[in-house]
Amino acid sequence: MSSGPLRARLAAIQGAIVFHEEQLGLLRTQRESTERHLAAIAVYPVLTLPNEITSQIFMQWIYTDDKSNPMLLTWVCKLWREVAISTPQLWVHLKNLPRDHDIIEKWLSRAGSLPLNLDLDLRHIDYPDSHLYETLLRHSSQLETLTLALDSDSEAVTLPPGPFPHLTKLSISGIDPMDQGIHRPIVVQTTSLAAPQLRELILEYRAELPGNALQVYLPCMQLTSLELKANAAECLKFLVHTPNLERFTVHCEGGHFPNLGTWTLVTLPRLLSIHCAELTTSTLLEYFTLPALEELSIWLAPFNGWKEVVQNLIARSGCSIRKLDLSRRYISPPV
């Protein structure tokens, strides 16, 4: 068979390819031109809103969606990026912290001088000798609320020296992934930390092994709200340092109630509300004197001696209970 026909066929195919490529190029040019004309006359109502309204919409989304992230807004279009970056209120809540130090600094700089609410996961990093610790130092004067997740084997809860003029709430947790429910001893070291507005503390610290006592260096005397996960003895030792408490939530899982017979009564003269969550026994209440108590919540199961405990607490304290919540299901802490 002669090669002539095959060569002619290849030439025809090549010619068709060139022709269609030219047509595709022409179509692409026409498409781009049409898109430009459409963009010039098309109306997208959301993009015609005043920037102030768009900014308010963004803030409503940020404050109502726990998974919201203002970075997502900057990826939609140029206008939204400009509005998001120029709205400092979008950047005052930092959670699910990225490990990229440059991103953190850029994020916080967009908040300007507004008070900050930071949720920092410091597990598996060298804290306090980390970039995140340096970030706390630089922005300490802006912190309003601070949540720290530390490694369960940390030996102390420490904060930079501050000052923290706007810090009102501090939450600290350190849970071992292999946690067997063993609570470490907690040693409170009161300090003159410059946080005059600090009133609320959440402390949750457990490890697989008891280890050394956890040192807590905080100005506990000024606290008015406390949520604590620890065994009964550690709770009582902690409460000695918090005479101004008004609200107290305690989590004490079963199996971690040592003999408290040697403990004297702890008096909290200003405590208005106590919430006993996860209590499998309410013997802890037998060591309180609460003259101002108005609200009491107890998770009963499987504890059946609640009536005597409550009656003794009221008689001993001389308090007037206005709200009593007794439940055989888990009671979520009040918000």
Structural write-up:
- The protein has 335 residues and is of the alpha/beta class.
- It has 2 domains: 129 residues, no CATH class; 112 residues.
- Helices cover 31% and strands 21% of the residues.
- The protein has 8 helices and 16 strands.
- The strands form 3 sheets. Strands 1, 2, 3, 5, 6, 8, 10, 11, 13, 15 and 16 form an 11-stranded mixed sheet that branches.
- The protein starts with a helix and ends in an 8-residue tail after the last strand.
- This is F-box domain-containing protein.
- It comes from Roridomyces roridus.
Helix coverage percent? 25-40%
Could you name the ranges where pLDDT drops below 50 across 5 or more consecutive residues? 177-186, 207-212
Total strands: the figure is: 16
Query: What structural class should be given to the helix and strand makeup?
Result: alpha/beta
The overall pLDDT, averaged over residues, is: 77
N/C terminus separation = 89 Å
**Radius of gyration over C-alpha positions, nearest whole angstrom:** 30 Å
Binned strand content: 15-25%
Tell me the series of helices and strands, N- to C-terminal.
HHHHEHEHEEEEEEEEHEEEEEHE
When the domains are counted, the total is: 2
Instruction: Write down the overall geometry.
Output: elongated
For the largest beta-sheet, the strand count, sense and barrel status come to: 11 strands, mixed
Number of helices: 8
Indicate the topology.
Layout: H1 4-41, H2 51-64, H3 70-73, H4 78-85, E1 93-94, H5 101-110, E2 116-121, H6 131-139, E3 143-149, E4 156-157, E5 169-175, E6 182-183, E7 186-189, E8 200-207, E9 214-217, E10 225-229, H7 232-239, E11 247-251, E12 266-267, E13 273-277, E14 288-289, E15 295-299, H8 306-317, E16 323-327
Parallel strand pairs: 1-2, 2-3, 3-5, 4-9, 5-8, 7-9, 8-10, 10-11, 11-13, 12-14, 13-15, 15-16
Antiparallel strand pairs: 6-8
